[in-house]
Specification:
- The chain folds into 2 domains: 16-68 and 159-228, Ribulose 1,5 Bisphosphate Carboxylase/Oxygenase; 74-157, Ribosomal protein L1/L10, domain II (Rossmann fold, 3-Layer(aba) Sandwich).
- Helix content is 33%, strand content 21%.
- It has helices at 5-11, 22-32, 80-89, 97-104, 120-124, 127-130, 148-157, 181-197, 225-228; strands at residues 40-47, 59-63, 74-77, 93-95, 112-115, 159-163, 169-176, 208-215, 221-223.
- The strands form 3 sheets. The chain has a 4-stranded antiparallel beta sheet. A 3-stranded parallel beta sheet has the order 4-3-5, sandwiched between helices. Strands 2-6 form a two-stranded antiparallel sheet.
Length: 231
């Protein structure tokens, strides 16, 4: 892959053989994020798991202390009082059969879906549409719940879902280049802590093997795994 002069100049400032402390990695990545837009700061984590085995699956949700920097649009499947709760909490789209019909028609102007448990038979029929987009509600990450107000507030306030890919890698956005170094460091540490807490029973050997922080257009900077995994 060919890279421009800006990327190559940023890469020259990074020691590719060194693993940095979180605060130092954040400072370097933030300095190198000099594109004309507010770049997303991203984590890439290589885990020593094989997610093909149920006891090695890693998934969950982490509420970032400083938020994500994104304005998420949230859809909620709920009826009656729960629908009203969702609306008051700031949900962008609320409905039941009418919302399902919109999704089936390709109208999906939202980023996340939450549902009350009684709505799951209806939502389940949308699995082939929502699943590939990573929007299928799941109780393990708090998106199938009776407490729709909290779920909406968490989603709007910086809750990030994560799920390990087939190759044992987790990717996640943990803020924006415009965030302060302290805010980004808090988010990175919180996310890495959530990954450690989600360590599955079947994980053998080194669990968190490699952690890299980067911006959308910038080079990756390795993070010291020993610091990241310290309790």
């Amino acid at each position: 892959m060919a890279h421009g002069k800006r990327y190559k100049a940023a890469l020259a400032n990074v020691d590719r053989n060194k693993a940095y402390l979180v605060k130092d990695a954040v400072a370097m990545v933030k300095k190198n994020a000099n594109a004309k837009f507010d770049e997303t700061i991203e984590l890439s984590i290589n885990l020593g798991v094989d997610p093909r085995h149920a006891d090695q699956m890693v998934r969950g949700v982490c509420k970032l202390p400083s938020g994500t920097g994104r304005s998420l649009r949230v859809a909620v499947f709920a009826k009656d009082a729960k629908a009203e709760e969702a609306k008051k909490a700031g949900a962008d789209v609320v409905g039941a059969d009418d919302l399902a019909a919109k999704i089936q028609a390709g109208e999906m102007d939202f980023d996340k879906v939450i549902a009350t448990p009684d709505m799951m038979p209806l939502v389940g029929r949308l699995g082939k549409i929502l699943g590939p987009k990573g929007m299928m509600p799941n109780p393990k990450v708090g998106t199938v719940t009776m407490d729709v107000a909290k779920a909406v507030a968490d989603s709007k306030g910086g809750a990030v879902e994560f799920r390990v890919e087939k190759a044992g890698i987790i990717h996640a956005g943990v803020g924006k280049a415009s965030f302060s170094e302290a805010a980004l460091a808090q988010n990175v540490s919180a996310f890495l802590g959530a990954i450690m807490k989600a360590k599955p029973s079947g994980a053998k050997g080194a669990y968190m093997q490699n952690v890299t922080l980067s911006s959308t257009m910038g080079p990756g900077v390795k993070i010291d795994v020993s610091e990241a995994t310290a309790s």
